Amino acid sequence: MSAWELPESLSVGCTEWKIRTDFRAVLDILKYFGDPDYEIDEKWEICLDILYEDYTKMPDDLKQEAAEQAKKQLQTLYDKALREVGETNAAIFEVHQMMLEDEDYVDAIQNMIRTELVNADYAVAVTGDNFSEMFANMDDEYMRARAEDIKDISNRLVKNLKGQAEVDLTDMEPSIIVTDDLSPSETVQMDKNKILAFATVHGSSNSHTAILARMMNIPALIGVPLDLQKIQTGTRAIVDGFQGEITFEPTVEVCEEAKRKIEGEREKHRLLQTLKGKET
What we know:
- By secondary structure, the protein is mostly helical.
- It contains nine helices and five strands; from the N terminus they run ααααααβαβαβββα.
- The strands form two sheets. Strands 1-2-3 form a three-stranded parallel β-sheet, with helices on one face. Strands 4-5 form a two-stranded antiparallel sheet.
- α8 (208-215) links the parallel β2 (195-200) and β3.
- α2 crosses α6 (147-162) and α3 crosses α4 (120-136).
- The radius of gyration is 26 Å and the shape is globular.
- The relative contact order is 0.08.
- Residues 1-40 and 48-59 have low confidence and may be disordered.
């Protein structure tokens, strides 16, 4: 290949928005041939202009489409949450929709795309991490818990930009969910009749995930030190929300004790339902 030939993967005929490494390669080559001992050919400059246009305009279009898709998804989640946990707790998804239009958040994404010449999903992911870290380091516990909301929004945008479908949790068998973390979106998507309980390694009791779990009457342990690599699908477990404990492969005695506790709680619930509405 001569000094002025364009590599096939970087040719003008292949300028559809691909990956940041393609554009970086062009920059590196142009930097090399920009040495005083060389003269940059005009067609290199044309190629650079076309690729720059692809990287600064197309991501904005893609991001806008992904944002609109996210708004529709959040509206669906709001409607489901409204039915199951009430207007006050469903409002989190209205807040998520507003965050999608937050000027600081949107400007940070667009500036990163233009100044660092990265693709849209990378910019959204990094911006989401930066904003989430900022909230996580705040002194106020409630504000620290909002870090998960930023991550939830950013992860949704990234998935939409990549064309990834949402995980369908409605068809699963009755199960205990053990995972690194759960977002508010993932929590409200769950069929509360099939999620027996869940435990997460990260999160806080003030998080929207924890609040939604309580309102949906799903036993939940948040911030539990678990080695997820040692836990296999199909493992039997008991989640004790009162004691804040999860027991794997429980003995017969532990299972019987758990059944007694469950029946006791059911009896309390039946009694409360009976007394509900009666004069005191």
